[in-house]
Amino acid sequence: MQVVFLGTSGSWPTPKRNVSAVAIKRGPEVVLFDCGEGTQRQFMQSRLSFMQVSRVFLSHFHGDHFLGLPGMVQSMSMNGREVPLDVYGPRGVEQLISDLLSLGYFTPGFAVRAKELPPGGQIDCGEYVVRGFEAVHTVPALTYALEEKPRPGRFSTERAEALGVPSGPLYSRLQAGETVQVGRAIVRPEDVLGPPRRGRKIVYTGDTMPHEALVEIARRADVLIHDATSDAALEEKANRYGHSSSRQAAEVAREAGVGVLVLTHLSPRYEDPATILGDAKKVFENVRVAEDFMEIEVPYRD
């Protein structure tokens, strides 16, 4: 699983940074969190394709987080897409998508299905779920957590051999959770598998002030992608507009015990993010400032 940062600026694009868009690639699928203006072009400059996007999760409806969606949908259609695209967001997302797709004289050649995700709700995507939580911003907004479902425990060849299970297809069936018969004996998956192993977890805060619930939302995340609109010197101003400083993001990361903190949504005033990074590192060591097209590989912890 990889995280690819397609846009890392807040409010408006800069020569080096486009506005908010974060792609998570898991196998052949791409899940997109926010879709600011120009996101489709950012895809074209990355190793990903916007045609791979299966789901879009919008954090809120400020323009720097959603205005890239109608153009990307049109390009998908003109490139022959037929499979549906699911779009989720806070209340009002159904009307927003309806309005966006009614602009001009263009009708997509595939279904665009919009659905509100209330705070505390979740979308079951098969091998993973995406949960939505209320963010603290100036408009209704969501923080998202993508969590893989637990994986089977490690297969013990020694235990299988001791139970007389021959190597081959029966091993695969046991690993897939099936009970098998070996002669007259019944062998269950728990006889040869260790305890279930946790999947990976990525949290994307969207635009938010730090708040008490955010620590629990981010608890033990492998990657926490956090709003870091300002450095500590402008923290009060950032909070006034519903944003966080990098110092505050680092405090959340430390308290939540995350693997790595990635700072994004930087104010365009910061041509050099040195102070943003420095303020965070004083609190939490394993931190990076996102740059456009930066990629992070997310390995399993065990």
What topology emerges from the helices and strands here?
Elements: E1 2-7, E2 21-26, E3 29-33, H1 39-44, E4 53-57, H2 69-78, E5 85-89, H3 93-101, E6 112-116, E7 122-124, E8 128-134, E9 142-148, H4 157-162, H5 169-175, E10 180-182, E11 185-187, H6 189-192, E12 201-204, H7 212-217, E13 223-227, H8 235-240, H9 246-256, E14 260-264, H10 274-281, E15 287-289, E16 295-297
Parallel strand pairs: 3-4, 4-5, 5-6, 12-13, 13-14, 14-15
Antiparallel strand pairs: 1-2, 1-16, 2-3, 7-8, 8-9, 9-12, 10-11
Helix pairs in contact: 9-10
How would you characterize the overall build of this protein?
With 302 residues, this protein is an alpha/beta fold. The protein has two domains: 2-151 and 197-297, 4-Layer Sandwich (Metallo-beta-lactamase, Chain A); 157-192, no CATH class. Helix content is 24%, strand content 25%. The chain has ten helices and 16 strands. The strands form three sheets. Strands 6-5-4-3-2-1-16 form a seven-stranded mixed β-sheet. It has a seven-stranded mixed β-sheet with strand order 7-8-9-12-13-14-15, with helices on one face. The protein is globular and about 70 Å long. The two termini are 15 Å apart.
